[in-house]
Design a protein that fits this description.
By secondary structure, the chain is mainly alpha-helical. It has one domain. The protein has two helices and no strands. The longest helix has 33 residues. The chain is elongated. The protein starts with 8 loop residues before the first helix and ends in a 7-residue tail after the last helix.
């Protein structure tokens, strides 16, 4: 995704919306996939495991997204 010009409020909002959607997907998909696998395989732990993996991965993604960036030299 190309970066909008610096200082544009709409551009900044779109960048943050993109980051938030990415974090939500990173948290949501592993839990859904684990639940689906539980139904297909007849197990009962993959949904919970997917939830833990999704939360951990989403939190790591959120920390990376909010970390201040260093200016280019």
């Amino acid at each position: 995704m190309p970066r909008p010009p610096a200082g544009s409020p709409i551009g900044d909002a779109l960048v943050w919306a993109y980051r938030i959607i990415g974090v939500a997907i990173a948290m949501f998909l592993p839990a859904v996939a684990g639940s689906w696998l539980d139904q297909r395989l007849g197990t009962g732990f993959l949904g919970g495991l997917g939830l833990v993996v999704g939360f951990t991965g989403g939190l790591a993604t959120l920390v990376r997204a909010t970390r201040p960036r260093r200016p280019a030299p």
